[in-house]
Amino acid sequence: MTAITHHIPDELLIAYAAGSLSSVFSLAVAAHVSMCDDCRAQLEAHEALGGTLLEETPSETVAEDLRARVLDGLDAPVAAEKTYHRSGIFPAPVMAALRGLPPKWKPLGLGVRQMILSHTAEGSARLLYIPGGQGVPDHGHNGLELTMVLQGAFRDETGRYGVGDVEVADGELEHEPVAEDGPACICLAVTDASLRFRSLVPRLLQPFFRI
Amino acid sequence: MCRPAASRDFFDPVAMAWRIFNMFEAEADLVLEEGPLTATVVSGANRAGERSKVTGKDYAETTMWMLAVRDHRDKVAFGRLFDHFAPRLKGMICRSGLPAAQAEDIVQDVMLTVWRKADLFDPGRAQVAAWIFQIARNRQIDIVRKERRPVPEELRQVEQTDVDAAQVLALEQETRALRAALKRLKPAQRVMVERAYLGELSHAEIKAETGLPLGTIKSRIRLGLEKLRHELKGTDRK
Questions:
Q1: Does A25 sit within 8 Å of B203, measured CB to CB?
Q2: How far is B134 from chain A, CA to nearest CA, in Å?
Q3: In the prediction, which pLDDT does B178 show?
Q4: How high is the pLDDT of residue B221?
Q5: Residue A28 needs a FRET pair 20 to 30 A away by CA distance; which of A72, A188, B153, B212 works?
Q6: Cβ(B93)–Cβ(B140) below 8 Å
Q7: Is the ipTM of this complex over 0.90?
Q8: How far apart are the first and last CA of chain B?
């Protein structure tokens, strides 16, 4: 595996550490940090700053019985929480989004497939499967889109993206990604764009945007 | 905020005691603590049959308490962690706009999580406050949004025998330097840092905020970061 060269922008790491990042972007951050030691160290450094602020936060008196309630709870039995582990190309946070099951792909034409992981008012997350050598026609972005490679690689006007790399596409980027020859390129794509029909987009690719 | 009037907080004897305690503690960060207090820090080294002696004046109090909780399930030490962090956690959670009762429910949940997940605490990678900060963010989001926040994979626990007291101390030193750097910020910058790191700005706002002194912060944490990077490179995953 080649080294990861395209990372999560710092403002997204800070927003993740601070808890202000939406759930779909949090998925991309958690997936990338699972695979990228540099971003893990960077995130933990931001958390160090958060910890420093916690130390200096003005205290609020807690209810008198809170301490007793917590101490009483120490020995209480707790249901084991469901945990997910990395499986094949999918890091644990992606496995959690898949609820531990293999992806159920839906064909989009031209051999391209996708699986929607979540689709809410604040954005959407999906897995994309693009056969080796296959291009995705020119398209733009409504909002911010992060695309992280899980298998294979793709190239576009901005460079080459291999396993673990994240492409950050904002409203200004018009690009034409092409999967490299070889194994299919599988990506995690998250966006906060309102996914809606765009007449300019080739008919075949409408599902990409409409979902 | 849980309390509308700052003046009330000012005259609240408990809050006042906390402030004095905090001032004292901040001072203690800067001077060498005295006294012969010596504690045996129980790390995994003990499990391997060795004893690493670390003096009490070397590790921060909170680190000692957390290690006692992790390695001995020490409830007295946990009580001290509670007394130290619960009011701060409540302050931080209230700042995000939740009512006091719900904030306390989250504090309770966070402190119980600290107890249950203590074995994941690695003083060579995170200070207690940073570790609890991250737990608090996760639990608050899980509870408020009623969904599980996506979290990175846990690194496989480093063999406890590898925990290097020098590294723990270096990290604590970096954190003190970071705290000192924060104190030197201009008030407006300080406000922006708090807003960014306590969840009051979106990622787009953080990116657009040119007054955010990230350069200052980063130059302070760079050393610790490099060290952390080096450590992580050699760590296997689950």
A1: yes
A2: 7
A3: 82
A4: 53
A5: B212
A6: yes
A7: no
A8: 40
